[in-house]
Design goal:
Radius of gyration of chain A: 20 Å
Radius of gyration of chain B: 18 Å
Number of domains of chain A: 2
Low-confidence stretches of chain B: none
Helix content of chain B: 40-55%
Mean pLDDT of chain B: 87
Largest interface: A-B, 24 and 24 residues
CATH topology of the largest domain in chain A: Rossmann fold
Strand content of chain B: under 5%
Oligomer: heterodimer
Helix content of chain A: 40-55%
Structural class of chain B: mainly alpha
């Protein structure tokens, strides 16, 4: 008898991949998400840079779709009525750096509490909770591991910390069968918010500077994960007994920012110049740049517009986000895209085919 | 030997203007505009320098200041004309973009995006 899974956020970028991977692995899937009109309430900005809604994709996969709103517990009950889930993959989240705290809290924190309580009562086999490696904030002693303390640098990551507190409390008090995954920035086909912004901005500028820092020990890193690896890791962990009650960072092998940028400039065909720079001078200039971006963010908000780049995305130019994926590797998981350049090459080609990049 | 003192700054400015015209309006329909126009401009300036060097300047000689300098320095400066044109053009491309879809290094520093949306090359 096939196993059954519930996937939340199933019409989003990662959700569609999770559903697809479960179907390919022989699972019965119940997919849930907001209905299209309700989704538009949260992502109302027009333009190319907000998450897409892929309900058509689910129809083509032929999975059962039950619409629900995490913020309304009464809409969650039908998800569990008459169905016993071997695993719940809680992918759904308001992933938007521009969103206000009250909206993030309502969707990400209260929504997760509502879902987790229903899942607990229904006696699900495993609850795989999607967090983020952003919960750690900047890493002082790299590489960061799952034992590092939380220090969220922005409202979205703060909402993920609050989410985690809720599910860990349920795990400790009620023996909730929990596994937490903390992915790095995700990319892959159908992705349009996050890593895509980097590619979009580089092509919009059409010229680049490749910065290398001296002394080299200050070299900044860039964590990322290809979506196929992420959903494979989620299913892998859901099926591992040892993963119950554990958290795992899910990311490809770390890459330095100069290596990544050199690759991106060449893959995108963007001409660039190299700029070796003394770390303190760079840090001073980068902090000024960050302040300018914050000012632009305020100006955009005052005009009722969305800035071209969200402030947390620019924090990568000053913060060290260097995490380890050793824990999940030690459990036996093998990445298909251990080098992010391999996955990004395919993703860039995918974007170009669709006119998302030139 | 005498050369026109404004040649180099004018070439730099012309590089800026031609680059902007090319990137903003002409690159898609007339992709060779920049090269053709640049070649013509450099040819005109070289011709002007040659006529000046021969001391038979028919139209600018007594209107604009001509400056006596060493022959080798003058030759070096005249040969460097394409570089100054290119220098002005490249700074403009870097700051403002090479295509209507690009905004250059100044792109992140404005709230509104005035560049055109991306399109697959085979749909242009």
């Amino acid at each position: 008898m096939p196993k059954r899974a519930l996937v939340t956020g199933a019409c989003g970028f990662t959700g569609t991949h999770m559903v697809e991977h479960l179907k390919q692995s022989g699972w019965e899937v119940t997919a849930t998400d907001l209905e299209r009109q309700a989704h538009a309430v949260y992502y109302c900005e027009c333009g190319d840079l907000h998450p897409e809604y892929y309900d058509d994709f689910l129809k083509n996969l032929g999975v059962e779709f039950v619409p629900a709103d995490l913020t309304k517990p009464e809409t969650l009950a039908p998800l569990f009525a008459g169905r016993a889930y071997d695993a719940v993959f809680h992918v759904a989240s308001l992933y938007d750096y521009f969103a206000a705290w009250d909206v993030l809290y309502k969707v990400n924190v209260e929504g997760t509490r509502n879902l987790a309580q229903q899942a607990l009562q229904a006696g699900v086999g495993r609850f795989v909770h999607w967090s983020t490696d952003g919960v750690y904030g900047e890493i002082k002693n790299p590489p960061g591991t799952e034992k590092d303390p939380f220090n969220p640098p922005n409202l979205y990551s703060k909402s993920k910390v609050e989410q985690e507190k809720i599910v860990w409390e349920l795990h400790q008090k009620e023996n909730f069968p929990l596994t937490v995954i903390r992915p790095a920035p995700i990319y892959g086909p159908r992705h349009r918010y996050g890593v895509y912004h980097i590619l979009y901005a580089l092509q919009k500028m059409g010229a680049g500077i490749l910065i290398t820092w001296y002394p080299k020990k200050h070299t900044l890193m860039f964590p990322s994960v290809q979506v196929t690896d992420l959903v494979r890791a989620a299913l892998f962990l859901a099926e591992k007994n040892e993963a119950a009650g554990q958290a795992y960072n899910v990311l490809s092998n770390i890459i330095t920012q100069p290596d990544l940028m050199a690759f991106l400039y060449e893959a995108l065909g963007v001409p660039y110049v190299r700029l070796p720079i003394w770390w303190p001078a760079y840090k001073y200039c980068a902090n000024i740049g960050l302040e300018v971006v914050k000012k632009l963010d305020l100006r955009a908000r005052a005009q009722g517009l969305r800035p071209k780049v969200d402030v947390p995305m620019v924090e990568y130019i000053t913060h060290q986000y260097w995490f380890s994926n050793q824990k999940i590797k030690d459990l036996g998981f093998e990445f298909r895209y251990p080098d992010p350049r391999q996955g990004l090459w395919e993703y860039i080609a995918w974007c170009k085919e669709r006119g998302w990049l030139e | 030997m005498m050369i026109w003192v404004w040649d180099i700054p004018v070439l730099f400015v012309l590089g800026i203007i031609v680059a902007r015209l090319h990137a903003k309006w002409l690159v898609v329909k007339h992709p060779d505009f920049f090269v053709h126009t640049g070649t013509i401009i450099i040819a005109v300036f070289w011709l002007n320098a040659l006529v000046s060097a021969l001391g038979a300047h028919p139209w600018l000689g007594h209107v604009h200041a001509l400056r006596p300098i060493s022959r080798w320095l003058a030759l070096f400066l005249v040969l460097s004309y394409p570089m100054w044109f290119h220098f002005g053009a490249e700074r403009t491309f870097a700051l403002l973009g090479r295509r209507p879809t690009q905004g250059g290094f100044l792109w992140p520093f404005s709230v509104k995006d005035r560049t055109k949306p991306f399109q697959s090359p085979w749909k242009r």
